[in-house]
Amino acid sequence: MQQVQGYFDLQYEAVKEAFAALFDDPQERGGALCIQVEGETVIDLWCGTADKNGEHAWNTDTIANLFSCTKTFTAVTALQLVGEGKLALDAPVASVWPEFAAAGKENITLRQLLSHRAGLPAVREMLPPEALYQWDTMTAALAAETPWWTPGEGHGYAAITYGWLVGELLRRVDGKGPGESIVARTAQPLGLDFHVGLADQEFYRVAEISRAKGNFGDASAQRLLKTMMSEPASMSTRAFANPPSIMTSTNKPEWRRMQQPAANGHGNARSLAGFYSGLLNGRLLDSQLLAELTREHSVGEDKTLLTQTRFGLGCMLDQPNVPNGTYGLGPRAFGHPGAGGSIGFADPECKVAFGFVTNTLGPYVLMDPRAQKLARTLGECL
Fold it and tell me: Which residue range(s) make up the domain with 239?
């Protein structure tokens, strides 16, 4: 039996027990959970191992690749720049990035990029594996790309292209690397251990990520997997496998170092909970911009994920009646899951900020059942 470390408020003992129970599964390696209620930390727990071989314990300062949990940090940074008048939600992207106007994209807006409505979740022409680490190669490919559907009509999740599309705008208007911009505007003011572009001297504390075996997930996970196996040139496949290195780079040093603000933020459960507390208490965005972030912009069948999704601007909104689309608390919850199970979200009605981080990747497309169970248990304690 692995020992759970950390702190919990006795009112939330059931959540601690639910977290401990995850590690009854012999495949579960390591993870952390942090929950803040009205800005107070009521749970700060970690357990298990940080490496694939089970030799190194998960520690209080272990961080992990948070995958798409990064996207909301990126969106908040963009919205801060909107608040400063350096970007505009409804101005053409090409007004800041002229090359982007090619191939019928002259009217695409930042709002459409943030809400996955721009028609650019993938690049059609196969790129070499090393292109993943070449910012200029990727932004040039996207600037030249023709939208996969009429921009603004319907939505399709931009799993990784979101990072280059929004990140290039941040780079152009904020005058620094997109990761530096995001960290300076979100993590540093709140004192969060969160990084987009990790320094080599931090590598020693990064959890190695690996997949759980033998679990094929729910129907939507299986549908997407089947498409990727049988339709190599489909938009969904290209979104996750072009460049082909996307799926295999997580533990590589060059992946950790790069600033890819769709998917390579590194942090811990505290940094996720702290970020969402910062949003709830108005420290990152004013109420008007927060309302834009969390207002429904896209809902329905997702052209990339082939399941129902609901988005604000760079955040995923709760779908109470969709089993793989609910955070497990209230209908106004907003946040973002990351590939394989990590998740950060806020529930404004319960005044809850929630962060769960794992290095044991599950197969689910949207919400991971582990995090949902923890959130439901939390709801019973409130």
Answer: 5-65+221-257+265-381
